Amino acid sequence: MSRFLKSLHLTALSFGFLAVVAVAFNLVIFSILYPQVTQLLAEKPVWETYGVVAAINIIVIAFYQLFSEIALLAHLISQKKTSTLVVAAIAVGIISSLMVMGDISLLSDIGNEYEAGLQTRGEWWILFSSYGLHVASLVLGLIALFRNLNQDSGSEEPILKDEVLFLSLISTGIISGWLGLLGVVGALAANIPLWMMERIVPMLTIIILSPFLVLLLIWLLRGIISSVKPGLDEKQLQDLSTASLWTLVITLPTMIVFFGFQYSPLAKESWEALWLPLLLFLSLTSFSSFTMRYFREYRYN
Amino acid sequence: MELGNNLKRLRFEQDNISQQALANAVGVTRLTIHSIENSKFNPSTLLALKISRFFGLSLEEIFFIVED
Predict the structure, then answer these.
(1) Is-cis flag, bond preceding A230, omega within 30?
(2) Of A157, A228, A233, the CB nearest to B20
(3) CA-to-CA separations, A296 to A10, A94, A179, A246, in angstroms, rounded
(4) Residue B66 forms beta bridges with which residues?
(5) Cβ contact A157–B34 (<8 Å)
(6) What span, in angstroms and rounded, lies between the C-alpha atoms of A300 and B34?
(7) Which residue of A has its CA nearest to B25?
(8) β-strands B63-66, B2-5: how paired?
(9) Are the C-beta atoms of residues A95 and A208 closer than 8 Å to each other?
(10) In a structure prediction context, what are the per-residue pLDDT tens digits for chain A, which is 301 residues long?
(11) Minimum-distance CB partner of B32 among A159, A162, A235
């Protein structure tokens, strides 16, 4: 591992330990404030003080996310091997990074709605879910950063046709796809009102897709910059073609079923906001899973 | 009928070159070479000719049909 990459990892790890304390501290603060705010009993000086501390902790978490994502992506691009852990840490980390910005907006919303005497349970639910993601991101990221530091960089043999980035891209598609499917199914089961769905679903869809889009952008840029053309070899093209066929076989009938279902008396109000993200994540999961299946139809030596 | 090959033996005989080195020479990924060696993937005519040119052998000396 190069000195620059090593120093990136160490910086990320340092912020990581601070972020663990920051996340724990914020969870304690939110646990104290939640019953007071939802019952409209919180005193302004108290929650303002807690708010300042929470904001400082959010900045620490944001710095950790920034350095850990840069370190892990740099490791992925420069190393010869990838792993499920690194890909999962990157994917969950990108989603968590975007949710950090959402946390600031949520806390601001909670403050304004509390002052207006409105109920804030929905926003608290989203905030606690966001912190669940931050915890997952911390766990995955710290383990991945530690393991990368101790990992042998392996052979220095040059690689002209990339497979690691392609593999990571497909893995991220699977992770984003499944997270999206679980999110949509959870939202359907939760009976969230349509007006709230229409506000949060487009934003959450983009956030969950973002790891896949980031890696896709890196893969495309690398293909443009690289002197070796074309970007995919014949086996990769065959794998993608076969996966596309199976995705079409699955999603076309599903689209017809979804179209018919919206007229069924069983369809909830929220179906209107959720059928498109459901189809999108089903397509992504299907395409990525089939591509991975054909791509890895063997074992490494 | 399947397509068999002597790629692994030929790599070993040719200074034990790695799958990666062969992949770099013929313009594919290492995983593709691995798939060909394990008869999981049949190369195109162009790729098969590139491989035979790399080893300096004819196609029939590298690839063969495996009868059922």
Answers:
(1) yes
(2) A157
(3) 33, 25, 22, 17
(4) B2
(5) no
(6) 8
(7) A160
(8) antiparallel
(9) yes
(10) 677 888 888 889 999 999 999 999 999 988 888 888 877 776 777 777 888 888 889 999 999 999 999 999 888 887 766 788 888 999 999 999 998 988 888 888 888 888 888 777 878 888 898 899 999 999 999 999 988 877 755 556 677 777 888 888 999 999 999 989 988 888 888 777 777 778 778 888 988 899 999 999 888 888 777 765 557 888 888 999 999 999 999 999 999 998 888 888 877 777 878 888 999 999 999 999 999 988 876 444 3
(11) A235
Distance in angstroms (rounded) separating the CA atoms of residues A180 and A23: 24
Residue of A nearest to B36 (CA): A235
Structural tokens at position A114: 């509390």
Contact at CB, B34 and A298, closer than 8 angstroms: yes
Report pTM. Answer: 0.81
CA distance B5 to chain A (A): 17
Q: Helix count (H) and strand count (E) of chain A?
A: 8, 0
Residues in chain B with CB shorter than 8 Å from the CB of A223 are none
State how far Cα B17 lies from the chain centre: 12
Structural domains of chain B, with CATH: 2-66 (1.10.260.40)
Task: Give the one of B19, B20, B32 whose C-beta lies nearest to A233's C-beta.
Answer: B32
Tokens coding A82: 């990838």
Joined tokens for residue A78: 């420069």
Question: For residue A256, what are the contacts with CB-CB under 8 A and spacing of at least 6?
Answer: none
CA distance A55 to A175: 30
Alpha-carbon gap: A39 to the closest alpha carbon of chain B (Å): 60
A273 and A194 in contact (C-beta within 8 Å)?
yes
The number of residues making up chain B comes to 68
Q: Which three-class secondary structure state does DSSP give residue B18?
A: coil
Q: Is residue A282 a contact partner of residue A254, using CB atoms and an 8 Å limit?
A: yes
Give the whole-angstrom CA distance, residue A299 versus residue A294.
12
Which structure tokens are listed for B62?
């590298």
Residue numbers in B near A297 (CB within 8 A): 35, 40
